[in-house]
Amino acid sequence: xxxxxxxxxxxxxxxxxxxxxxxxxxxxxxxxxxxxxxxxxxxxxxxxxxxxxxxxxxxxxxxxxxxxxxxxxxxxxxxxxxxxxxxxxxxxxxxxxxxxxxxxxxxxxxxxxxxxxxxxxxxxxxxxxxxxxxxxxxxxxxxxxxxxxxxxxxxxxxxxxxxxxxxxxxxxxxxxxxxxxxxxxxxxxxxxxxxxxxxxxxxxxxxxxxxxxxxxxxxxxxxxxxxxxxxxxxxxxxxxxxxxxxxxxxxxxxxxxxxxxxxxxxxxxxxxxxxxxxxxxxxxxxxxxxxxxxxxxxxxxxxxxxxxxxxxxxxxxxxxxxxxxxxxxxxxxxxxxxxxxxxxxxxxxxxxxxxxxxxxxxxxxxxxxxxxxxx
Length: 375
Ligand SMILES: Nc1ncnc2c1ncn2[C@@H]1O[C@H](COP(=O)(O)OP(=O)(O)O)[C@@H](O)[C@H]1O
Ligand SMILES: [Mg+2]
Known about the structure:
By secondary structure, this protein is α+β, with helices and mostly antiparallel strands. The chain has helices spanning 64-72, 94-97, 114-124, 129-142, 158-170, 188-205, 216-222, 240-245, 250-255, and strands at 5-6, 26-35, 38-48, 53-57, 79-84, 87-88, 100-102, 176-180, 208-213, 225-230, 233-238, 260-269, 272-277, 282-287, 297-302, 307-311, 317-324, 328-335, 338-345, 358-363, 368-372. A seven-stranded mixed sheet has the order 1-7-8-9-4-10-11, sandwiched between helices. A five-stranded antiparallel sheet has the order 14-13-12-15-21. The chain has a five-stranded antiparallel sheet with strand order 16-20-17-18-19, with no helix packed on it. The chain is elongated.
């Protein structure tokens, strides 16, 4: 079960009236964390604006939690700096950072009612009486649990308990809310519902959010910007659209969405790179933003929706397999030693592609990316 706790500053100054201000900008600079010989986080630098919702996305073991734990103050950085609103906080203990936290591995206080759980961080901040009641009621409403205040945690479902934990982490309106796979244990429908709720709550509360997930759909649909991590290294930090349309590395291109990779020969002249595929009879010229590897071999990345197919009996490409999904047909084609997937939008009356059919492949060069092969 996902579990959750709320970290609180010992100071009483951070009352609930502090909301739509400009606090909560977070920067990490050349942050590295070693566990013995393992570089869990490798020279990561990124800046997050106040009020921004940033997802840390990567597969298991990519360093997401370690990065989050260093920001939270539960792990000590091996080197590099963490700043909050321009002030270095490496040496500030976690309980003084005053961040909200939602984890997988913490439970609600089992002996306290839901209302008492949510009130806890407010009381720690010196709020009393009607103020607490009002804020708790508001928080319960935000997470769609009005009327559940008097229950004990074990009288709620797992999903409901996580909502309570979210309410508890948000009720004191921390400048920064850190979440580590908070929805990981929920079923798909509930997860999507809570994704929406968290976005709404983010709008209402205005806290900066750093949200760890290994689910790219979750990251892309929730976050303003997504930081993609691989083996401890930051591959790219960008809006969902930037990641999808302009992946900075072959890893990001492959990790986000569906992608075809075609082997190409690279030639650089001046500020341009020419990528050539003999199998496809295709040449793509792009600005040389990356240094070519000595071998001059690379990969041309193109999304299935930018691969066009035209029936042509004299063409050398053959349809191997296809799948019809109503609005689209996904078509696997082979040409020479290359296989690629095309996503064709189905229009009424136009025949579908069939296995064995000969087709001409058209690739829209404007929607391709060229990457040097890793040396
Ligand atoms: N306390 C620890 N001791 C040793 N190695 C660790 C520890 N925590 C994490 N690691 C290692 O650091 C790497 C990153 O782990 P983690 O940050 O948990 O990744 P993620 O959250 O992306 O799954 C992994 O190789 C993991 O095994
Ligand atoms: Mg993790």
